[in-house]
Amino acid sequence: MASKIHIIVKIVAACVIPMTVFSKRYLPNWESLDTRPLPPWYDEVKIGIYIHWGVFSVPSTYCGEWFWYEWQTGQCKECVEFMNKNYKPDFTYADFASRFTGEFFDPNQWADIFKAAGIGYTAFVAKHHEGFCNWPSKYSFNWNAVDIGPKRDLLGEFSAAIRSRTNITFGVYHSLYEWFNPHYLDDVNNNYTTQHFIKKKVLPEMYELINKYKPEYLFSDGDWMVDDFYWNATEFIAWLYNDSPVQDTVVTNDRWGKNIRCKHGGVFTCHDKYNPGHLIKRKWENAMTIDKQWAGFRRNAPLSDYLAIEELLAVLIETVSCGGNILINIGITHDGLIVPIFEERLRQMGAWLDVNGESIYAARPWSNQNDTLTTGVWYTSKKQESGLSVYAIIQNWPTGQTLTFGAPITTSKTTVSLLGYPNKFNWVPASPSGGIVIEMPYIPISRMPCQWAWVFKFQNLAN
Hints:
Blueprint: H1 2-16, H2 30-33, H3 41-45, E1 47-52, H4 67-72, H5 77-86, H6 107-117, E2 121-127, H7 154-165, E3 171-175, H8 182-189, H9 196-213, E4 217-221, H10 228-231, H11 233-242, E5 251-252, E6 284-289, H12 309-321, E7 324-331, H13 340-356, E8 377-384, E9 387-394, E10 402-405, E11 415-418, E12 427-429, E13 436-439, E14 454-459
Parallel strand pairs: 1-2, 1-7, 2-3, 3-4, 4-5, 6-7
Antiparallel strand pairs: 8-9, 9-14, 10-13, 11-14, 12-13
Helix pairs in contact: 6-7, 6-13, 8-9
């Protein structure tokens, strides 16, 4: 069901804003770039998958994807002890690259898992701060997945599988920053008055990435050390919006300089796990992790470090209720596996969306995000042929014979149903000024529509 909803959503979204809206030329300044409307597909699909995979997947232990930096700088004592105990003194981080094998990487299997999960778009890590490219970049000699390690174009294979087997929008994550790149360190020593790193590496690499793979979502990162002038951000984004092969459909974020986050750019991602908890004027994204500590896969992570499905759904529901998208991260093993804990969470989410996706996909914030009387309730809404439908999503099934909501204002035509359950519910007004009391029938466990988080649908409300 989720995949069917997704197909319909993408068709509708493509028709919402005529492409003539995108025919204007944008100037390389934020005043102009910020006038570009958000391509509608992004707000419709709601859920993205964030995939961390790189050389850091080989040590896959303390500090996750930040292992190299934390070890080399000595900031992670556990990382230093791990290396001293398990590797020879002359072992370097580059030596891990040959052990980044990817022999079990099956992009078709990944695509099928993401489709079953109800995912709408991807943010595959093309390059993290370690500088290793998961595609054969001409600007990353011998530090990419074709020259060393898997000897495969990981990004290309993944893109082909996503596009051939699903309706999921293909997108990438790309770090501007590289911890130990000599060109970058030269610019740092020059107090960022030079741009050797930008001109020789960053900009050529990004143009190559967009022209070759045509991602329709670009999650930029690694911007926080210096203002946007150093990254030449406005120059690149103007090209992205005006002349790139994805100029009409691409979505990007706000990580283009330490002075830009949460102020300019595309979707606001502000910081990792960003969640304002209320409506804001701009579209935003919650880039979060199933592993509570790190994004890269950790072999030594205890079960308690992983979100339970109830916790994952709680973040999803709150995020969508407040107008955001959720970008759910999983870490991949060095040999290319999605480990069972991640696959289980994704498939559990997909099973929930099969029943309740109507309240998530293409939904909009309602007049209330939380309920005024009952805690743990989040609202979404959607315009349908029959009128406005309002969805109240509860995370705890009521133990009594009634369930009260304070926010809805009823009319004589109001109806109440539970997504996935065949019968309508009886109700009475909570008070003359508003609210509703729902009579809760006995529902056998075998007839419950889902195991976690239930969605009540209201139609014909006064508000």
